[in-house]
Each structure stands twice: as structure tokens, then as C-alpha cells.
Model the fold of this input.
Amino acid sequence: MPTPDFLFSLANPVAMLGWALLVLAPRWRGTRAVVLSGALPLLLAAAYVAFIGYQTVAHPAPGGGFGSLGEVAALFREPWALLAGWVHYLCFDLAVGAWETRDAHRRGVPHWVLVPCLLATFLLGPLGLLLYCGGRRLFRPAPPAAAAPAA
Done:
């Protein structure tokens, strides 16, 4: 069985690939297929489920739980739970970054406006989401193209 440290070393580059594609090649079809489709966040979600399931069955954290901050601290002293928590962050932050990118494309938000929001989402999660949601209000989605009248 791989160790939590080894799996951590795999999960980080997977997420970094997604962030690099969002920042450097947001309109590339590979980015659409791998990140904007949700495939990479879903891969991380599946890893999270496997890690938290394994932790719950094979490595329960004594005194761990969600009823108090102390219980959460006890839970995260168990390496498998800590790994699952980290992958949870990687998954959700990347899913939010993918949503920001899809929404920016739909609204016509320039990429130079989006990039700082993506970086903030990558580094500080909710701050990046707040920045993007504030900035996106400056841009309205393009109206649907009207069909040409039949001749």
C-alpha cells in the first residue's frame, strides 16, 4: 500500500497541471477536455473518497471528529485523514477555478482580469472566489446571437 506521503506527492502535480492549464492555455481543447469538463476535479474527488474511506476503516483517528475544533485537530493528526483533507482542498479549489474560467469565457471577462483571481483561488481559496465574484459583476454575458430572418 502506498504511503500518505507518496500519494500526497502524486496529488499535488495533478492539481498543478489543472491550474497551469487554466492560467496558461484556458481555451485550448485539452484544457476543455481535462479541466473545464470537470474531469480532473472529479479524479481528485475520487481520490478523496478512496483516502477518507481507507482512513475511516483502516486508520480511525482516536478522538477525531467534527464536533469541536479539538476533535478536528485530533482527526488531522492521522496522516490518512490529513491527506484526504488536503485532496479535498485541491479538488474543490480546482473545481472553483474551472467554474471561474468557464464563467469568464461566457461573460467575456478578459483573461488578464481572471488570472489574479485564479491565483488567489489557488493560494487562498475563498479569497479568490470573492475577488472573481466581485470582478465578474463588471462584465455581462454576451446576449445570444439572434437568428437571421428567413428570406
Remarks:
- The chain is about 75% helix and 0% strand.
